[in-house]
């Protein structure tokens, strides 16, 4: 994937503690604003902020609905938890969204919540999902990326006998609209995850907030790419930055720091409730001064 000459900007609307109509309003507005190139949801089954019993929507179902309600925006989950859905099923879900959207999916995936977070396992317990240790999460992520890409691209059924994933007669039909496949964005900062990024990702995303940590993680990714003979510049660097409606200057400063650090793909996290015409505000107050 070639590098864009200018940074690209998108928005993220966490589908939690909000109504569907609120998110739909923001995405429809953003779809009419060319400066906003992409839009993202997250992938949790239990609120991670606010009322723990508050509303939250399933990310891929909502993404499919929004794909059908938009025409231009690239879209995805920042990022899918590989812990929640078996990878072959996830490949099928993602293909469906790529087709529904006319080839606008950016496929975001990660290892899933870290075991070190005290509340991380609760949503898995709620839904009867296994919650393995970090080594299992990262190992299964690498196998998932391999299997998903093969299901998207291979023209004959195949068997896969991995440590974490076993498939018999696996086959994907239809294929995604995008060729050879939707871009793969892997999110995370853990050292083991960065090795998977080096091998499998077209884009790498990290949460902003500590620019020194972001820079050191990006340098580590460069090293891992070099070790396996991959050009580090072939992975687009993406960062999620939280937006302050009251202090846009803080967000603009964070964007400038990240551009100086070599980041080209910006996901601007919008807190709810969303102001009227928030997408136009993002374009005028955050994007225009930064390009």
Q: What is the topology, as strand order, of the major beta sheet?
A: 3-2-1-11-10-9-8-5-4
CATH architecture: Alpha-Beta Barrel
CATH superfamily: Luciferase-like domain
Q: What is the string of helix and strand elements? A: EHEHEEHEHHEEEHEHEHEH
Instruction: Indicate the proportion of strand residues.
Output: 15-25%
**Helical run tally:** 9
Residue-averaged pLDDT: 95
Radius of gyration: 18 Å
The CATH class name reads: Alpha Beta
- For the termini, the CA-CA separation is 21 Å
Contiguous uncertain segments of 5+ residues: none
Strand and helix map with partners:
Elements: E1 8-12, H1 20-30, E2 38-41, H2 59-69, E3 74-77, E4 80-81, H3 87-100, E5 107-110, H4 122-127, H5 134-153, E6 158-161, E7 166-170, E8 184-187, H6 191-200, E9 203-207, H7 211-227, E10 236-242, H8 248-260, E11 265-269, H9 278-287
Parallel strand pairs: 1-2, 1-11, 2-3, 4-5, 5-8, 8-9, 9-10, 10-11
Antiparallel strand pairs: 6-7
Structural key phrases:
291 residues, alpha/beta, TIM Barrel, 9-stranded parallel beta sheet, two-stranded antiparallel ribbon, 9 helices, globular
């Amino acid at each position: 994937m070639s590098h864009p000459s200018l940074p690209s900007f998108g928005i993220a609307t966490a589908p939690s503690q909000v109504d569907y109509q609120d998110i739909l309003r923001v995405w429809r507005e953003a779809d009419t604003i060319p400066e906003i190139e992409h839009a993202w949801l997250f992938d949790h089954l239990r609120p991670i902020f606010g009322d723990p019993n508050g509303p939250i929507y399933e990310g891929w179902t909502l993404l499919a609905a929004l794909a059908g309600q938009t025409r231009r925006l690239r879209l995805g989950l920042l990022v899918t938890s590989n812990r929640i859905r078996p990878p072959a099923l996830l490949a099928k879900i993602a293909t469906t969204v790529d087709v529904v959207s006319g080839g606008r999916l950016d496929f975001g995936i990660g290892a899933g919540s870290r075991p070190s977070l005290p509340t991380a396992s609760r949503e898995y317990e709620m839904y009867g999902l296994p919650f393995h240790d970090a080594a299992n999460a990262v190992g299964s992520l690498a196998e998932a990326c391999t299997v998903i890409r093969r299901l998207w691209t291979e023209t004959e059924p195949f068997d896969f006998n991995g440590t974490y994933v076993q498939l018999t007669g696996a086959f994907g039909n239809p294929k995604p609209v995008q060729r050879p496949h939707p871009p793969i964005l892997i999110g995370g900062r853990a050292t083991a995850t960065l090795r998977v990024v080096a091998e499998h990702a077209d884009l790498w995303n990290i949460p902003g907030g500590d620019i020194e940590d972001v820079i050191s993680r990006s340098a580590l990714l460069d090293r891992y790419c070099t070790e396996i003979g991959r050009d580090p510049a072939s992975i687009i660097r993406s960062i999620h930055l939280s937006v302050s409606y009251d202090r846009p200057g803080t967000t603009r400063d964070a964007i400038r720091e990240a551009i100086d650090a070599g980041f080209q793909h910006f996901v601007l996290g919008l807190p709810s409730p969303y102001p009227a015409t928030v997408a136009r505000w993002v374009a005028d107050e955050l994007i225009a001064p930064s390009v």
